[in-house]
Amino acid sequence: MSWFEDLVDVGKTVIGGVSDFFSSNSLGSNLAKTALLGYTLNRVNNTVNKSNVNQIPSPNAPVDPGVRLQVPPASDYKVPVVYGAATFGGVITDAFLTSDRLNMYYVITLCEKTGTKLSNSTASAFVFNDVFLNDNRVIFQSDGITVDYMIDREGNQDISVRNIVQIYCYAGSSATPVVPEYYTNGGLSPAYDIMPNWDTTYTMNDLVFAIVKITYTRDKGISGVPTMQFSITNSMSLPGDCIYDYMTNTRYGAGIDPADINAS
C-alpha cells in the first residue's frame, strides 16, 4: 500500500482573507477600523516576508511508503494578502489520487489576488520568481512545469525528482496559467484541465495558487507530501496603492466606499 492510497480528509474550502472583520457599515466605524487595519497590514507584510507563513504540514521524518498518511483539513487557515515580494508556503485545499494509485495531485492556495493600483489604474499582476521543494530551489525543464533538478543551499544539484514532479502555477484564477520567471510556454492549460476531479466550475477566482503533481517513485524517495514554498512578486507595492486597496476591497479589506476616501 502506498502513501497515496490513504490520503484523505483534505480541506476543500478556501477561507478568504480577513473579510469577516467588519460588521458595521458607517463611515466613522469603517475609518476607525481602517486605522487598526493599517497596523494589521504592516504586520501581515512583515510576516509574509519571513517566508514561513502557512507552510504545508509535512512529516518530520521519512515515512514508510506502507504507512497511512493524512493531510489534516485546512478549515482554520486563512488566505493571506501579499503586497510586493514574499517567499512563503500555502494551504492544501484539494487533492486527488489517480485510479492506478501512482499519481497524486494537490492544490496549494497561496494568496488573494489584489485589485487595481490607484497610482496608475492598472491591475495588479503576480509573478512566480522561484519555487522551493523541501528547502531546495527547483530548476524546471524548458516547459516551466516539469522539475529537472534541485539546488540546495550549498549549490549541490539533486536530480532525484527529475520528470516525476510537475508544478502548475496560476496567477489569479483557473484561467490564468503562468510559468515561473525566465521560462516560456505558449501551451499552458487552465487548472480545470489539469486537476482530474475539476470541471469549468472550479474557477478559483481572485486566488493565486499552484497544482502539484507527484508520481509515486519509491526508489527515489518520493513517498510523502513535500514542503513547498513559492517566491512571488505582486506588482502592487507602493504604500498608497496597498493601503487604498486594503481600505476599499470588499473581499479581504475594510470595504470602504471609494467615494468616501479623498485619494487626491
Mind explaining what this structure looks like?
With 264 residues, the chain is α+β, with helices and mostly antiparallel strands. It has one domain (3-17, 54-239). 12% of the residues lie in helices and 25% in strands. It has two helices and eleven strands, in the order αβββββββββββα. A six-stranded antiparallel sheet has the order 1-11-4-5-6-7, with no helix packed on it. Strands 2-3-10-8-9 form a five-stranded antiparallel sheet, with no helix packed on it. A hairpin with a 5-residue loop joins strand 2 and strand 3. It is globular, with a radius of gyration of 19 Å. The chain starts with 26 loop residues before the first helix and ends in a 16-residue tail after the last helix. Mean pLDDT is 79; it is low at 1-24 and 43-70.
Strand percentage, roughly? 25-35%
Q: Roughly what is the average pLDDT, rounded to an integer? A: 79
Strand order of the largest sheet: 1-11-4-5-6-7
Work out the number of β strands: 11
Structural class: alpha+beta
The number of helical elements comes to: 2
The major beta sheet can be summarized as:
6 strands, antiparallel
Distance between the termini: 64 Å
Helical content (DSSP H or I, runs of 4+): 10-25%
> Uncertain segments of ≥5 residues (pLDDT<50)?
1-24, 43-70
Task: Tell me, briefly, the overall form.
Answer: globular
Number of spatially distinct domains? 1
Can you write the helix and strand succession as a string? Answer: HEEEEEEEEEEEH
State Rg: 19 Å
Q: Key terms for this structure?
A:
264 residues, alpha+beta, 6-stranded antiparallel sheet, 5-stranded antiparallel sheet, 11 strands, 12% helix, 25% strand, disordered N terminus
